[in-house]
């Protein structure tokens, strides 16, 4: 094997190691491409030279590869290594074609992927070239939401629908991709919000691999995974017949002899780490173990419904370090949330003294640090302690930075600074060394050990074997039964999808049919005179039709209770304003008619089924329709994120910080580009009018549609006639 090395003129580049020769390159391409593969599906070659990127609004470049040339052969493997903040994610996004198109800024140099000049595309267009998107599979890093649609099966179908796969082929591809990455296929029917951080990573890998891309980009793909899950995902990525580019902090995670290695050195590593990784163990060994008698936390027979935790007993004392480990999905994050009090326990008891200062550093650091600079969130009395922690963790220069412009690893350390600034009695941290290089991981371990020595109780969840604390006590969580591969579930998944549930044997009506009837009923309420009897004659048949075709009595009752104050208030406002009682009650009755019509339209509301019908039956444009759907589907997760943020931040404040609304708005602002990137890398712009997309669940009309149309038409006709008679 021949090896070559290039040295970079830029101080940010440490080295590039290329491990290939001409014969090996030819062999790697032949092994990566199946015999008989059409030329259009060959893995692309990548050429990078003198690449420079400066984000919009930034004073200087955040990625500077001047003097560096990299050539990745078709079917080759490039590992981008480097510490946190070095620019690994930025380079991956450049290769994905996102810089200068979806992500505003200036990009210069040479970047050609599969014959597509991405620099020219960025400077001449606002979107990624279609031929580039067709080859692309992209796995983003971190536990923060990176999906387009909330349910895994629907999200994984997007790349296949955009590439016009048939329904049966889509279901087969989804099942195969799930099995390849070690995910039980039954998980395809689950929402991302019900998955653990590690399970979300595996689910995202399913989406990235489902269309069998010829250009595969993965950002810290093994972050937060247990060794077995990491080995399975590693094998799936390496076996993919594609040109692969993988960003990671440690190349030993992908120790492939045929790989080229590009090592970046970002500004955050210009100063040496305070505690080198090689001496971290010695530092910890010299620290005394001081386990106090003061109880910091006790969980007694605690359990959480619907989660993989409990019942369990756990005691943590001041000056003690307890490390929670377990396979992906075993409930580590749930246990930490229950211990911190941000998640309710449904059985057992949580014992924490009211005066105990508890701080939680979640797996997604954005939930803690939010949108404002960290320095602005630290009270004056704690700033000296925060400065010391920031210097120890190598992020002192980022205390005034906007968190959105920091890397995931930098945000993780900033969150730890924020927690350590108050000298907590109980510090709870979820994967605090995730995605960090060895030197920075050693800094984190040293900071945690220092907190323990000062008397803090530590409760840490991790998969990272580097996280070793002096005198630690390990707790291993059991393997959840539902996380194992279920072959029977895989076979069931490949069968045709069951029809949507309905109370009638006729099946469920098409969402488009129900929407049209709901709109018609609303228009009828507007056309009917605002008299109580006339409006109620419109409302009652609408309610009957809604209940017959899917609306739940409980949901209707809850809606009625919620609207009662508004209905009564409208009537009273009209009466107090001098309106006759008949007009006042008529206005209130019209609101009732509107509500009943909206039940036909919205209960049960299935936006994805409505989007399917609009795309297939009304020929609505695929990309804008899915973008609207994805944005609407994100709203519930944003509400959940806001609640989680509020619970985490309440640990630091006796009452809710009014500025939390800024963080909630920040979550919405961050979600928009995230959704845009997720949709782009899934290829939703690929379909055209000449080549429309296919659908995982085709929109069909059947006997249920005929029945609901006939019922609604009859009821509406009678209601309008009675309303006209009453109005006359």
Description:
The longest helix is centred in the last third of the chain and has 29 residues, at 622-650. Helices cover 44% and strands 15% of the residues. Mean pLDDT is 78; it is low at 1-40, 267-292 and 482-505. The chain is globular and about 85 Å long. The chain contains 23 helices and 19 strands. The N and C termini lie far apart (95 Å). It has a seven-stranded mixed sheet with strand order 1-2-11-5-10-9-8. Strands 16-17-18-14-19 form a five-stranded parallel sheet, with helices on both faces. The chain has a four-stranded antiparallel sheet with strand order 4-3-6-7. The protein is α/β, with parallel strands linked by helices. Among the domains are: 3-145 and 214-267, P-loop containing nucleotide triphosphate hydrolases (Rossmann fold, 3-Layer(aba) Sandwich); 277-357 and 423-483, P-loop containing nucleotide triphosphate hydrolases (Rossmann fold); 511-605 and 703-727, no CATH class.
Tell how many strands the DSSP assignment holds.
19
Secondary-structure-based class equals: alpha/beta
Percent of sequence in beta strands? 15-25%
Helix content: 40-55%
Inertia-based shape = globular
Within the largest sheet, what's the order of strands?
A: 1-2-11-5-10-9-8
Radius of gyration: 29 Å
What is the CA–CA distance across the termini? 95 Å
Number of helices: 23
Q: Which blocks of ≥5 consecutive residues have pLDDT under 50?
A: 1-40, 267-292, 482-505
CATH C-level category of the domain at 3-145 and 214-267: Alpha Beta
Mean pLDDT: 78
Instruction: State the major sheet.
Output: 7 strands, mixed
